[in-house]
Design goal:
The protein has helices spanning about 30-45, 60-70, 80-90, 100-115, 160-170, 185-210, 225-230, 255-260, 345-350; strands at about 25-30, 75, 95, 120-125, 140-145, 155, 170-175, 215-220, 240-245, 270-280, 285, 300-305, 310, 320-325, 335-340, 355-360, 360-365. By secondary structure, the protein is of the alpha/beta class. It folds into two domains: about 50-245, TIM Barrel (Alpha-Beta Barrel), CATH 3.20.20.10; about 260-365, D-serine dehydratase-like domain (Lyase, Ornithine Decarboxylase, Chain A, domain 1, Beta Barrel), CATH 2.40.37.20. Strand 10 and strand 11 form a beta hairpin. Helix 5 (about 160-170) packs across helix 6. It is globular.
Length: about 375
């Protein structure tokens, strides 16, 4: 799939000195992170309580601390390691947005006991998933299928949602609706599609409330649908708290910057790569294959900051071929390239450490705290 050219300036991103940096390297720009957080807060009416960011993107405890520093206290995550990182970073409320069982459920309950000051919740979509949470500190949201068909109960099965909510009793917190499939349309079309879904969700909310079960919170909206979640009138004035949950916006990538071009978002995470080969007349290869820059969103996996004319091709594990147009200068072997990922979330997960950059200089090294998963034997030690 060929994407439109995307021009990302190197101004403010290039390092004054790359000597001694082992590539590929993950570069995080904390000032841009702060700006992106402020932009998102602006979208949600400058109310931090309206945003429950998914930290599958942020990953770094240091970046989560930047978020809590701007008043954000409620988070969402997908792994027990992300849950642990959020709790260690001072989160007040964390939803593990996954239905878990067995050792995963035991680990969530253990983390909840370890951090009594953090309210922890999980998702369920069936009665079989509820028993494990009885007698624990863990709250429960019911996952409603938005049409993405990945997880959740169909909104057409409101009676099942009501029964689940009743069975959960005081542990029931609310409903979760992830509409991540609403991504490629124009903003107007995206809002229309999202609002149609929110109307179906709201019907379920009202049915649960009419059955005498209070709904504390309704969570919607991944990154592309965030503005639509805020603009939907049905979420205003209800008895429940509504929150949106975009996560990519903290760093941004090729996809989010296109989808959200109406807002003042900036790239805040780049991959520094080195040109290692010149195998063909108009082709170079750098050391940022799909084990560095994720290929899960397709090819091209990235764009080269400062060089929109360069055309990244299909990567292998450690190699990324890039075609250089006839009218462009070919970078020499050893040159450095700054790559903006097409999908930043799994790209961040490829690195153990991130270099924090301000003013063209590396000012620190931070662990990618929530990278990967916990030791699978964590409960047996």
């Amino acid at each position: 799939m060929k994407l439109p050219d995307m021009s990302v300036s190197l101004t403010g991103y290039a390092l004054a000195n790359t000597d001694g940096i082992v590539t590929p390297a993950l570069l995080i720009y904390p000032d841009a992170v702060d700006s992106n957080i402020r932009t998102t807060l602006g979208i949600v009416g400058n109310d931090p309580e309206r945003w429950r960011p998914h930290i599958k993107t942020a990953k770094l405890g240091a970046v989560i601390a930047q978020m809590t520093g701007q008043g954000i206290r409620n988070f969402k995550c997908a792994t027990t390691l992300e849950l642990l990182t959020a709790c260690q970073s001072g989160a007040a409320d964390v939803l593990l947005a996954l239905a878990v069982s067995g050792g995963n459920a035991r680990r969530v309950a253990e983390i909840a006991e370890r951090f009594p000051g953090t309210r922890i919740s999980v998702l369920v979509e069936s009665a079989a998933q509820t028993a494990v949470w009885r007698g624990t500190r863990v709250g429960v949201f019911i996952d409603v299928n938005s049409g993405m068909n990945r997880t959740g109960i169909s909104d057409e099965r409101a009676a099942d949602v009501i029964q689940l909510a009743r069975d959960l009793g005081p542990a029931f917190r609310g409903l979760h609706w992830y509409d991540g499939h609403i991504s490629n349309a124009s903003p107007a079309e995206r809002e229309k599609q999202a609002h149609e879904g929110y109307a179906r969700l709201l019907a379920v909310v009202h049915a649960v409330e009419a059955a005498g079960v209070p709904v504390e919170e309704v969570i919607t909206s991944g990154t592309p649908a965030t503005a639509a979640g805020i603009s939907y009138p049905g979420f205003a004035g209800g008895k429940f708290r509504h929150r949106v949950s975009p996560g990519t916006v903290v760093y941004n990538d090729m996809s989010s910057l296109r989808q959200l071009e109406a807002f003042d978002y900036q790239p805040a995470a780049l991959v520094l790569a080195t040109v290692i080969s010149h195998p063909l007349d108009r082709q170079i290869t750098c050391d940022a294959g799909h084990k560095s820059v994720s290929a899960d969103a397709g090819v091209p996996t990235c764009t080269v900051a400062g060089h929109p004319e360069y055309q990244p091709r299909k990567p292998s594990e450690e190699h990324l071929p890039i075609e250089i147009p006839a009218d462009a200068e070919i970078p020499a072997i050893g040159s450095k390239l700054y790559l903006l990922p097409r999908h930043v979330c799994p790209t961040v997960n490829n690195f153990d450490q991130a270099l924090m950059v301000r003013g063209g200089r590396v000012v620190g090294v931070e662990p990618v705290t929530a990278r990967g998963h916990e030791n699978p034997l964590v409960l047996t030690r």
